[in-house]
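Hey all, quick one. A colleague (J.T.) asked me to put the coenzyme A job into the tracker so the inputs and the structure tokens live in one place instead of scattered across chat threads. No bug as far as I know, just bookkeeping. Sequence used:
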Amino acid sequence: MNTPRHTVTLRFLAEPSDVNFGGKVHGGSVMKWIDQAGFTCAANWSGQYCVTVYVGGIRFYKPIAIGDLVEISAAIIYTGNTSMHISLHVYAGNPRQEKKEKTTHCVMVFAAIKDQGQTVPVPKWAPQTEDEMNMEKYALRLMDLRKVIDEEMKPYL
Ligand SMILES: CC(C)(COP(=O)(O)OP(=O)(O)OC[C@H]1O[C@@H](n2cnc3c(N)ncnc32)[C@H](O)[C@@H]1OP(=O)(O)O)[C@@H](O)C(=O)NCCC(=O)NCCS
């Protein structure tokens, strides 16, 4: 199998063990899946062990039903020196039907680390297509916004 090294897609069925008290998929399960897809994408790109540094702006647009086919797509959209910024989209729907709905989006930041926990440089991502260039600009705008959010949150850390 040959997949582009900067993207990863996970597909599976939402299981009964993922249920919340309302009968739909637990938000915590979705966050775990996002983290797993992001980690796989980061490790695949860097060839290193990676840890989650930041998760921003998770929005749950629609509920996911137990038994739905869930698809999580992760893509590198920007790399710093040791960090990888990854866009994640979650789609879900009845496996008997073609239509899948976008249920969640967020951007996560992972850092590549060595055995002792120190960060290591990652290969540079160079966007080629117009879409990829737009996504890189999106990541840079989010970085600027994050600085404002970090300042705002400082007194409460
Ligand atoms: C990730 C970790 C090793 C970074 O250590 P650190 O001493 O802060 O290292 P740095 O300051 O060099 O930051 C590493 C990268 O993260 C980025 N980063 C740091 N804070 C960030 C933030 N708030 N948002 C986005 N990126 C951030 C830095 O810009 C840097 O990227 P760059 O080299 O591309 O510029 C450390 O914070 C850690 O171990 N955190 C816990 C990770 C964890 O347990 N995750 C959950 C389970 S996987």
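Adding what we noticed when we looked at it: Residues 130-153 form the longest helix (24 residues). The chain has one domain: 7-156.
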